[in-house]
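Q: what sequence does this backbone want?
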């Protein structure tokens, strides 16, 4: 079945600068940014057995969103964490959010150049104004505990029933007062994307 062109309604971006969480003020803040694209869900309102082709249509959107994040945060050399997510309007299904895994994750990894870890993700079906916690992990080793983080995203008028809201998130470092132990960024071996 041929798919319609992407119908993008709007894009929402956010930038956080975190100086402290009650402890000492950091010399340089942790920066987290998100970009959310709200678009028409071409499968809303019906069950469609063949949906994988839509991933190809989403690739340019993923690259555009990833580039916007890099511009917001100062370039690929500044990025240490990433994540992705999808909010699907109530006329869609969770599987429609799974179509964002490849285009969203590969876009960030492509523009970062050296990112070995799997891009963590979350997705859910929700009504207008739903919020989503997007997980963040280190770009080269998923087990780096200092970079286990998340960023809450949402939009007051999305996703409408026939829409999907696709999200990418990047961060510039560990949680501002990280002290929970475990594998540290300087201990990454880079053999498998985990450690």
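A:
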């Amino acid at each position: 079945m041929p798919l319609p062109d992407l119908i993008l309604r709007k894009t929402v971006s956010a930038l956080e600068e975190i100086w402290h969480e009650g402890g000492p003020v950091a010399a340089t803040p942790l920066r987290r940014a998100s970009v959310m694209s709200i678009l028409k869900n071409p499968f809303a309102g019906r069950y469609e057995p063949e949906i994988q082709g839509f991933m190809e249509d989403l690739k340019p959107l993923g690259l555009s969103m990833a580039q916007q994040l890099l511009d917001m945060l100062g370039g690929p050399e500044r990025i240490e964490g990433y994540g992705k997510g999808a909010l699907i309007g109530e006329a869609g299904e969770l599987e429609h959010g799974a179509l964002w895994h490849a285009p969203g994750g590969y876009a960030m990894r492509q523009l970062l150049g050296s990112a070995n870890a799997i891009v963590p993700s979350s997705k859910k079906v929700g009504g207008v104004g739903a919020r989503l916690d997007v997980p963040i992990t280190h770009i080269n080793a998923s087990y780096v505990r200092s970079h286990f983080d998340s960023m809450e995203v949402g939009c007051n008028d999305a996703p409408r029933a026939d829409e999907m809201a696709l999200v990418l998130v990047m961060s510039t470092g560990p949680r501002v007062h990280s002290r929970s132990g475990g594998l540290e960024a300087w201990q990454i071996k880079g053999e498998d994307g985990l450690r």
